[in-house]
Design goal:
The chain is of the alpha/beta class. The chain has helices spanning 46-63, 65-70, 86-99, 108-123, 131-138, 148-159, 173-178, 181-188, 230-265, 280-290, 320-324, 346-353, 371-374, 429-438; strands at residues 2-4, 7-13, 34-39, 73-79, 271-277, 296-302, 332-336, 405-409.
Length: 440
């Protein structure tokens, strides 16, 4: 094993199907009492993932001297083939920046080239067998505005790349697979304003990428709003397709790879602590749901990229079994902030598919909001601890309750100093402090 700030560290590498890429099992140092299993989200390679782990756990070592004295801790960093799906947005936004803003709304050629560029990025998420379907979809782009059959073929060719097993009502992915392709693009051509961030720090409005522009509703325009008509709907469809593929992959890695690994690690430690960021929250939550060990002591979900109803009984949350089966023995932390723009990408699309026409989407009152935006919602009485509701400064005291959720509003500390998307700013000492207190 290597180390991070003196704490033993090992990488656990998995392919997209959850198969281990390393021939040798991870071995923890003799006498390890606690292992932290962490998973990255939207990072494209091992270097970026381990940078996240290094920054977070270097700060952990700086603030958690008591834990390091009382326990022998090791870290296992999960590395899985994720694709930062906002790259699909950003690649085309960069093109927009060169081309000159809102004028794109009247430029069919610009929209065509943007969709093609996005499809090229999406192609990198799949194996070579997908190339034929992506080419067939590209061949429909020029006909989308006038030809219903072309719209259906565009949607159906691309949708057929996906595995429907992760479809669920909580993010409207079940409807995503059922809708007629022409109807879907028609629904998605409507602008999708998001709620203003309104956080105590950072400000700004939620958006689908950099270089956003303000909408009349007071939110921010995503890339689709730069264009008009059916092609803006096609862009939103591609955003959601990329989101769904990463969602499915994260769940598979958690269920088939990380979950069994937890059971093996449990033989050699007293306690296991789970930490996830972004789609990595789905990885560790799926692992918690499918593993069998009773040593899962804490779970910290940092800006989780799944539904805020994911643990809800009344909403049939995808991960409700984690609650009902008491999978986590100690506290469950959920950081959330309106400063997180990336978490909102999928949910306005989900709302539009459902026919929602509200002027502001994605907040706690929206059926399709995100956990990293709003915290755990629609929970049963007593499942979310009241009064433990803010991410605190280092040294602050948390009154945790075992097996309960703690929604920590984090706008003061999870914030991009430049005022843009705070989604990745989860490695600070305040976050590390909260993780360390949950391990106490």
């Amino acid at each position: 094993m290597n180390d991070i700030a003196g704490i033993s560290y090992a990488a656990a590498r998995f392919d997209k199907d959850g198969a281990a890429l390393d021939k040798q099992e991870i071995t923890l140092p003799e006498g390890t009492t606690d292992v932290i299993v962490a998973s990255h989200g939207w990072n494209n390679n091992e270097e970026q993932a381990e940078r996240l782990y290094t920054e977070l756990f270097t700060n952990f070592a700086a603030v958690a001297s008591d834990q390091l004295q009382n326990k022998k801790i090791a870290i296992v960093g999960v590395v899985w083939p994720s694709k930062r799906f906002t790259d699909v947005v950003d690649a085309a936004v960069a093109e927009q920046a060169r081309g000159g803003g809102a004028g794109f709304g009247t430029s069919s050629n610009a929209a065509d080239e943007t969709i093609k560029a996005k499809l090229d990025v999406i192609a990198t998420m799949f194996d070579k067998k997908a190339a034929k379907k992506i080419t067939a979809a590209k061949n429909q782009i020029g006909k989308l505005e006038s030809d219903l059959a072309a719209r259906r073929k565009f949607v159906d060719e691309l949708r057929s790349l996906l595995d429907e097993s992760a479809a669920h009502e909580e993010d409207n992915s079940a409807l995503f697979f059922k809708l007629d392709g022409s109807v879907m693009l028609e629904k998605l051509k409507q602008p999708t304003p998001l709620v203003s961030s309104g956080g105590r720090s950072g400000g700004g409005a939620a958006s689908l990428g950099a270089h956003s522009k303000t909408t009349p509703a007071g939110g921010a325009a995503g890339l689709g709003d730069i264009f008009s008509g059916i092609k803006s709907g096609a862009i939103r469809f591609l955003n959601y397709l990329a989101y769904y593929e990463m969602k499915k992959r994260a769940g598979t890695v958690g269920q088939k790879g990380v979950g069994p690994m937890l059971d093996r690690l449990a033989d050699n430690v007293q306690r296991i602590h789970l930490v996830g960021h972004s789609f990595g929250c789905r990885v560790v939550t799926a692992a918690a749901a499918t593993s069998t060990t009773d040593k899962l002591q804490s779970m910290s979900l940092l800006q989780a990229a799944f539904s805020h109803n994911g643990f809800s009984k009344s909403m049939n949350g995808f991960f409700r079994s984690v609650v009902d089966n008491h999978r986590i023995k100690g506290p469950i932390l959920v950081t959330y902030t309106p400063n997180d723009r990336a978490v909102g990408i999928a949910y306005p699309v989900a709302s539009r598919l459902a026919g929602t026409v509200a002027s502001a989407l994605g907040d706690a009152n929206d059926k399709f909001g995100g956990l990293g935006r709003n915290g755990a919602q629609k929970m049963e009485q007593g499942e979310v601890v009241q009064g433990v509701d803010r991410l605190l400064a280092v040294g602050g005291s948390y009154s945790w309750k075992s097996g309960r959720f703690h929604n920590l509003e984090s706008s003061k500390y999870i914030v991009d100093p430049s005022g843009r998307d705070a989604h990745g700013f989860v490695t600070g000492k305040e976050v590390a402090w909260a993780i360390s207190r949950a391990m106490a």
